[in-house]
Records
---
Amino acid sequence: MNMKEVVLKLENVYKTYHLGEIETRALRGVNLEVYKGSFLSIVGPSGSGKSTLLNIMGLLDFPEKGKVFIEGTDVTTLGINEMATIRGQKIGFVFQQFNLIQHLTALENVILPMLFQNVAEDEARKRARDLLKMVGLEEKISRRPYQLSGGEQQRVAIARALANNPSIILADEPTGNLDSKTGKMIMEIFKHLHQDKKRTIVVVTHDSYIASYGDQKVLIQDGRIVSNHQTRKEYIS
Ligand SMILES: Nc1ncnc2c1ncn2[C@@H]1O[C@H](COP(=O)(O)OP(=O)(O)OP(=O)(O)O)[C@@H](O)[C@H]1O
Ligand SMILES: [Mg+2]
């Protein structure tokens, strides 16, 4: 059997921002299905709605109209607490600015989301160590973010995103604040997570080289998906 399982689905999603008199129609009827084990790149010009789209996919923001399904559950019908629980369990988010907590060590940053999900502290600590080892930071787990390079901070952020074993990892311009060599190293981690760990990954980028890591490319313009196609042969599972 080779059934494609949809892990995340957007149905006719709209989002308009209001700033005083100014109205920005950031998303205008987006339909998208993300299959389990796929690696999606979302590309498009600045202001086209990429971050808005990713934030809605990651339950960090609400659509104004339309539905968002995570593993078949329509999250737009849920209350804010239930939504936060699903986000914590199913979604790992990586930001351009890393967004680590400055007064916590690398290890503590990775432990924190597990404590929010009531994982026992010993177990959380062990898992955080393993994840930091996976991203090559076992020597630096006691450092705080300001004692780490940008690439190292982003690796901590990836370990943190993986903490609760999410079914989907979303990354908004994860290499945007890094030089190209470091950016490539970060993308190699995503590639490993995809190919070896069979994770589902969505990366927003305006860089076509970064986008080439994906096996499916979605182009967004003026709040609409204008193309969505496979860029490589699918993996046989
Ligand atoms: N909080 C907000 N309030 C008002 N307008 C917003 C807000 N966030 C985004 N916008 C507007 O919505 C549109 C889409 O923004 P979005 O951040 O999704 O674009 P993007 O494709 O991620 O761009 P970039 O490549 O520059 O990051 C833009 O016109 C932007 O100015
Ligand atoms: Mg953006």
---
Amino acid sequence: MKNFRSAIIGCGAIFPTHGVSVKHCERATLVAVCDIIKERAEKTAEKYACAAYTDYIEMLDKEKIDVVHICLPHYLHAPVAIECMKRGKHVITEKPLSVSVSDAQAMIDASEKHGVTLACIFQNRFNAGTQFVRNMFLSGELGAIKGARCSVTWYRPDSYYVADDWHGTWDKEGGGVIINQAIHTLDAMRYIMNAKPIEVYATIANRGDTHIEVEDTAEGAILFDNGVRANFHAINYYSFDDEVEINLDFEKGRAKILSDRATVKMSDGRILSSVTEPLSDIDYGEIKAYWGVNHFRQIDNVYKCLESGEEMFVDLKGAFETLKIVCAIYESGKSGAKVKI
Ligand SMILES: NC(=O)c1ccc[n+]([C@@H]2O[C@H](COP(=O)([O-])OP(=O)(O)OC[C@H]3O[C@@H](n4cnc5c(N)ncnc54)[C@H](O)[C@@H]3O)[C@@H](O)[C@H]2O)c1
């Protein structure tokens, strides 16, 4: 079995899901971490018994690294990933792939040019509810899809946005509730439908009490190439982080996904439910419950595929399609026009 030498850039909130996953992954060893905040890098390195850096270029120069995990603010995903790929490193970046379609395309071009793998984290694709409905649909059991809608009603106070210099900004975060929070739910809806988005007609607004420039509200329609016009609604000014919801109407049944669980009411009266298999040995420490537990499943799968050459479970093409939806929502929301993808 191969053992890949890994590094993680960005030791902030999402770091533990990558650090713990690498630790549990039999094909990977964490050799270095990097954060521009020195104490953060050093504290993390001490905990994980690896080297600490504040400059990722220096880390790439000094350490022998095969795989780089990018856990950075959104605007840095593209430049850092491209720099790593130029040096022959495989890259696993956190969502979103980048803040623009052109940046994402440049990342994909770089991975092809340099013959390395680029993976993007969408851990919730592993959720039992998502898999349950998608597999039933793909097997033909549910018949054709007729309608879809999803909603994310979460809460992000000012303290969340002022904790750093990137959340709540167009240039660094690339948007608000859509690109950061609802992106998972949009990705899951698109993935279950197994269809290509072709047009978006959306509104974005800032309706809460926070002092941010990006949207805390968005709603609209996404037209897919199967003829379904899916609806989405997302806000960051609810009173708590409610369960995200995806509803899908099929010829032979209706599916409701709440967080990671699904219930399907079949037209013949049967009610079917997903079963979640917990990852009992993985403890990410202090992370948000709504991030789920599936980072390990995705990261472990990426390393397995690096060794075997198989297709990754979370495909890059799908991550790009989801980013195209996100960028089209912003373009439509800003212009007021329908946007073709
Ligand atoms: N998959 C999920 O469910 C999930 C959940 C939360 C966050 N995320 C994603 O993870 C990424 C990071 O988010 P976060 O919440 O951990 O952010 P964060 O602000 O907590 O952490 C980012 C870290 O990057 C460091 N950093 C910034 N610029 C740097 C540079 N040039 N070199 C090295 N380090 C640098 C910062 O000092 C900080 O420690 C984002 O893409 C976010 O969307 C994903």
---
Amino acid sequence: MNIPNKVMLENVSCPLGCPKSEEAILSGRDLLHDLPGTFTIIKCRTCGLMRTNPRPTPETIGFYYPDDYGPYLGTRVQQTETRQTYGIKKLLKPVLKRLFNFNTDTLPPLSPGRLLEVGCASGAFLHRMAGQGWQVEGIEFSGTAALAATRLGYRVHAGPLETAPEPSQPFDLIVGWMVLEHLHDPIAGLQKLCEWARPGAWLVLSVPNAGSLEFRLFKEKLYALHLPNHLYHFTPETIGRVLQTGGWTLEKVHHQRVLNNLIASTGYLLRERGFTGLGQKLVDFPKQAGKWHYALYPLARVLSAFGQTGRMTIWARKRAC
Ligand SMILES: [Zn+2]
């Protein structure tokens, strides 16, 4: 399938300033929404960082973010939801949290302060953190999702990180769930966040792990590949270098303990082989996993111990901007 006329492509060099020397890793297309276009991932021979190249320009990549783009839908806070939950749910919550640590949004142990979430979608995480005493702000690319988060009463910049205004006060904690890999210029983004952070502040990001076995196993069928929305494909090593250049020091890599990638990637594979029904069921697994996450936890824990669950949550600290 050809890339539509309204999508403009651009070629970019390695953001770490390496000399031009790269190899093609794989080519794939948008399997999430089945939008047209084939895209290639290349690897910088000097630093190992992988990027989608050529890629849609910042002005035209919106074509690959339709309104039903999954992350916008999954984070809506229900009107009836309050900051307090009562009864058995409230009693069970801390117990489950202790027994099952999925590492998906693991945070350093900090007292509440000022928090910024980059890519806050419809505001569910902001809402949760506000309930724990944090002063929260957000940045969200999608106008519809940003409006939903604003309606919850939070200050949210609707637009990309690049156009977000400087905050009135620095932040103690900045988070970005599955966002860094979407940025056209991750170094500039990290530097901007570094300038907005107080000395010693933490940055917590989750990203797919292109260093995992799943990446080599599923190749263009990898669920976390998400072409062409994912512009960079990090490994624990390359994200360390990118953070360093952006003013942050990588402190810790937590391998997530969920099997979304493994299951949905298997779904893509089965779908292609003609097992449409079962394949689609597995592709939809991340949207409706619910209690399955608990059942699959022991296996996810083993795989994560070897860094093989395909997603990581990383902690970094402000170094110097
Ligand atoms: Zn490089």
---
Amino acid sequence: MAIDFNALRKLNEGKTKIIYANPDDLKSVYMLFKDDITAGDGVKHDIIQGKAFVDWQTNRDIFEYLNRKGVCTHYISAPQERVCLVKKLDRKIDIEVVTRRVAAGSILKWGDMPEGKRFDPLVTQYHYKDDPLHDPMLDQSYVNFMVNNKGATEYSEMRKINDQVFEILEEAFANFQIQLIDFKLEYGIIDGKVTLIDEITGGSFRLWPYANEEPKLNQENVLSELNPAGRLDKDNYRMGEDLDMVQSKFAVIAEITGKFKDLP
Ligand SMILES: Nc1ncnc2c1ncn2[C@@H]1O[C@H](COP(=O)(O)OP(=O)(O)OP(=O)(O)O)[C@@H](O)[C@H]1O
Ligand SMILES: [Mg+2]
């Protein structure tokens, strides 16, 4: 039977999802995906018919894959279209944790970095979540100090999970001739543990197809081996592509992540 969301208590509504109480279980909540798309910390905003559906598919397939690989996530199930059941947060951590393999996006401007520079080991950055302040980045040596001198192990836990998830997804997308460039993930505390929460969809990462069948990806700069113009992610929207095109690329992502269940 379909879930009647009008009868449920709305706990929270954000830019892309609504959270509803689950009357049958106080320890879990429903996450309903919306057709809204935003960029520039919410300044650019549109509605794309059907976006919620493809985001829900992508999110479901990625989280089911991560759970299978043993990652600690909030995801439980996808009980109906556009809806996920997840473990309810005990405490939200207001930090976005970014991992980068290849230099792209904002880091090219503020980091004075050539596009396509490859990072090995992966680069991790912590951004304090605050749209009006444009999610300012935390100073790395300060984070290290917090971990080593104040026992703030949440930071190192989040970095560890980010690295683990990046390596899992980078390898998964590589099966489809696509390079995971970077992503941002969110965390909370559930049952006393740092747990991966929220969503992983086309707005969470950059995905660039390979430029040729056997790209040489072990170089200092891998730009010539990749095809950024064929990007599948939300950069299409940020760059002003028409909404049909944006949605068709999100559908390609969902088609690919739909095949993750067949991966070993
Ligand atoms: N497991 C969970 N339990 C409870 N709330 C959750 C869980 N996972 C995600 N949320 C919350 O769902 C809310 C809606 O998500 P959405 O991404 O739409 O928000 P947003 O507008 O992007 O705001 P935010 O900047 O907080 O992400 C967020 O506040 C998010 O923290
Ligand atoms: Mg969000």
